[in-house]
Write a structure and sequence with these properties.
globular, Neuraminidase, 28 strands, mainly beta, 5-stranded mixed sheet
């Protein structure tokens, strides 16, 4: 997942973004190269500043910060938490807080003053939520709202917390009718993958509905060519959606990821219960990719890179790919062993 910089309300506009006071329209035929050129302009080769991946593991008892500013020299810092099974992770740059979902304790932990913690071998949370879920997966944060995707047979839930004064307070619980995994909240709209399928569910005005009720998706679309999705990352500024495909969970070499440019217009064109066709996507898969069970993903248009948490191949990896311009079998530009990789979050800090 990637830190969003600007949000679009899909109920109001399909493919418009604002950048530095200028209105840009990404048309339905606009491709990746045009998006990069229009966004980066004359500075497209400039130093992008510090780029870090915050990563979770469900076997290692830590979270790890990978400095991916220079892919030829990836440095990492490990914070040992003692939570042997962790999943969703989010870093608040403004507050210098890492939120990490502990499946070991069924809580969300908050770790403050991260830069100070990095000099320590073992770290402890500054605060934690109550244990309001039993099988948490991804988390997403927007403003003062933190949402947990809970994937439990016959009781899938979206558990909503309010973030305030260095604490997490349970706010609402919504029951949903799909098996959950990856989620992302963007400008009040929640995107959620339906585990076990190739479907993407969309919930508008999320969090405004009453507590403790069944929550139906406002839209659900299928993604042609995708077998079983897990991770997602939507960059609203550039209107690009990336979804991962774990395919057969028992196989460590059949995974992939899909890139959908001009996503909002393609979503609307597909309509509820429709399908986004393969011709409207880019799919990366094959024996060169090291993709088997890619469980989470982050996108940087600025760096022209896609970052993947690969759980199965080699026991776990952080994989970095160049942004693809066409479908195919693509070798990653960086491949770092990370046992039990379960989640990634990209933090980008611009040069002063």
């Amino acid at each position: 997942m990637h830190r969003p910089t600007f949000f679009i309300n899909l109920t109001k506009t399909a493919s418009m973004c604002l950048l530095a006071g200028t209105t840009l329209f990404f048309t339905g035929c606009q491709k990746g190269e045009e998006i990069f050129d229009e966004f980066l302009g004359k500075d497209k080769d400039k130093d992008m500043g510090e780029m870090r991946i915050f990563a979770s593991t469900n076997t290692g008892g830590n979270f790890t910060i990978f400095d991916v500013s220079d892919l030829h020299d990836i440095d990492k810092t490990v914070a040992n938490t003692g939570n042997m099974d962790a999943d969703g992770i989010f870093y608040s740059q403004d507050k210098d807080i890492v939120y990490q979902l502990s499946r070991t304790e069924s809580v969300v932990n908050g770790y403050t003053d991260i830069m100070d913690l990095m000099g320590k071998k073992d770290v402890s949370p500054a605060f934690s939520s109550d244990s309001d879920f039993t099988n948490g997966r991804e988390i997403t944060v927007e403003g003062d709202m933190l949402v947990v995707a809970e994937d439990v047979d016959d009781m899938n839930q979206l558990v909503v917390y309010k973030v305030y004064h260095g604490a997490l307070r349970l706010d609402k619980v919504y029951r949903v009718h799909i098996n959950l995994w990856g989620i992302q909240l963007v400008d009040g709209t929640l995107y959620a993958v339906e585990d076990g399928t190739n479907n993407l569910a969309v919930y508008h005005d999320f969090g405004t509905k009453p507590d403790d009720q069944n929550l139906g998706a406002d839209m659900k679309v299928a993604i042609e060519g995708l077998v079983r999705t897990h991770g997602l990352n939507y960059d609203a500024m550039h209107d690009i959606m990336v979804l991962t495909d774990i395919a057969d969970a028992t196989v460590d070499s059949d995974g992939g990821f899909h890139v959908i440019e001009n996503f909002s217009s393609k979503l609307m064109d597909a309509g509820d219960e429709g399908m986004i066709m393969m011709d409207d996507q880019i799919r990366i898969a094959g024996d060169m990719t090291y993709l088997g069970n890619p469980v989470d993903v982050a996108l940087s248009v600025e760096a022209k890179k896609i970052y993947v948490a690969e759980r199965a191949n080699g026991g776990g990896r952080l994989l970095v790919f160049d942004y693809p311009m066409e479908s195919g079998n693509m070798k990653p530009v960086a491949n770092v062993n990370y046992e039990g990789a379960s989640a990634v979050y990209l933090d980008e800090k611009e040069m002063d």
